[in-house]
Design goal:
By secondary structure, this protein is α/β, with parallel strands linked by helices. About 35% of the residues lie in helices and about 20% in strands. The structure holds magnesium ion.
């Protein structure tokens, strides 16, 4: 089997991290060997993650500890995309960040505030900072005219303790309560995928995106012309696939099946 006929053969890969390479920072079976094989064959690879809890430098370190050699500059994260979105669309804005601030170093040039007034509310990944107090602070800022920006709108991620409720559920709630629609900066944003293609220096028709999130990773990548590959690892649930109107180009048991599938082995 090959990638999308219209684009010709796949030459480069965008890889989701959580649920594709690791779960709770433990490597997924055969993922380490697969990435090093792709490297040996000179296949350009970038990691594209909606993870909001770590800076790129910290992610690179965590991946190295799990056995993956990925440099910080080879990792595209939702917080970095958020910073660039804010610089372009809300320069100089006072920004209230809903979520813990472990990624502050990736939010270069962004002024974070703790209280009103704020020009923008940014929703990060769901964590212990999603308290009633903080959600209500965000809600009131939005009612006072702040713009709503979400690093992503994923509904869940998988840890070794099970699925966890993610920021998407809160974004939906804030939208319904305020009548606003969030601008999304990480996956599935077209701009974010565009920066992944730019980093690979390849057109969409030559790139495959591999992820465990049917909507944010796979269907969104297909919408911009990439080949989409859904892995049955991480948060994959057959029910999500069965009830989806959109179909992935490919479904594989794990990332280890990707090189042979796309003719990269
Ligand atoms: Mg994932």
């Amino acid at each position: 089997m090959s990638g999308r006929a219209a684009g010709g053969p796949v030459e480069g890969l965008l890889l989701d991290m959580d649920g594709v390479l690791t779960v709770s920072w433990k490597p997924i079976d055969r993922a380490v060997e697969t990435l090093s094989m792709l490297r040996r064959r000179g296949v350009p690879v970038r990691v594209m993650t909606n993870t909001t809890s770590h800076s790129r430098a910290a992610l690179s370190g965590q991946l190295r500890d799990a056995g993956f050699e990925v440099a910080p500059e080879e990792i595209l994260t939702a917080p970095v995309a958020t910073a660039s979105y804010l610089r372009a669309h809300h320069p100089g804005a006072r920004v209230y960040l809903l979520g813990e601030t472990g990624v502050a170093q990736d939010l270069e040039g962004v002024t974070l505030v703790e209280r009103e007034p704020a020009d923008v509310v940014v929703v990060g990944g769901a964590d212990e900072a999603f308290t009633f107090h903080n959600l209500n602070t965000a809600f009131r800022m939005l009612l006072s005219g702040a713009a709503l920006v979400a690093m992503h709108r994923n509904f869940s991620w998988l840890t070794d303790e099970g699925l966890c409720l993610d920021a998407g559920a809160y974004v939906v709630g804030l939208e319904a309560a305020t009548g606003l629609t969030a601008a999304v900066t990480g996956k599935p944003s077209t701009d974010f995928f565009g920066s992944g293609l730019e980093a690979l220096d390849l057109p969409a028709g030559r790139v495959a995106m591999v992820g465990d999130d049917l909507v944010s990773d796979v269907l969104a990548a297909q919408a911009v012309g990439m080949t989409g590959v859904l892995t049955r690892t991480g948060k994959f649930r057959q029910e999500d696939l069965d009830r989806s109107a959109g179909r992935p180009d490919h479904v594989v048991d794990s990332i280890a099946d990707v090189p042979a599938l796309l003719g990269l082995a």
